[in-house]
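Much of the work behind modern protein science is quiet bookkeeping, done one molecule at a time. The protein below has been through that process, and both of its lines are reproduced in full.


***
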Amino acid sequence: MAYVIAAPCVGNKDSSCTLVCPTEAIVGLPSDPQLYIDPDLCIQCGLCVSVCPVAAIYPEEDLPQPWLDYVRLNRDYFRKLH
């Protein structure tokens, strides 16, 4: 399962995670409310987790209950692009 970017990223969008992702799976346009992880490109290396200053990135299976909708939000973001 892929990593997911959740609520703490909304409005913050610190891009440190994009710089360490070896597959360039993390993207977001300036107009987007947050960054997103492409579940098809994520290799679950966890590098993004260690650099996120707002603790917004979780493995899908460890996502806190109130943020479960972010699994869908991340997937839907990339479905729109393809």
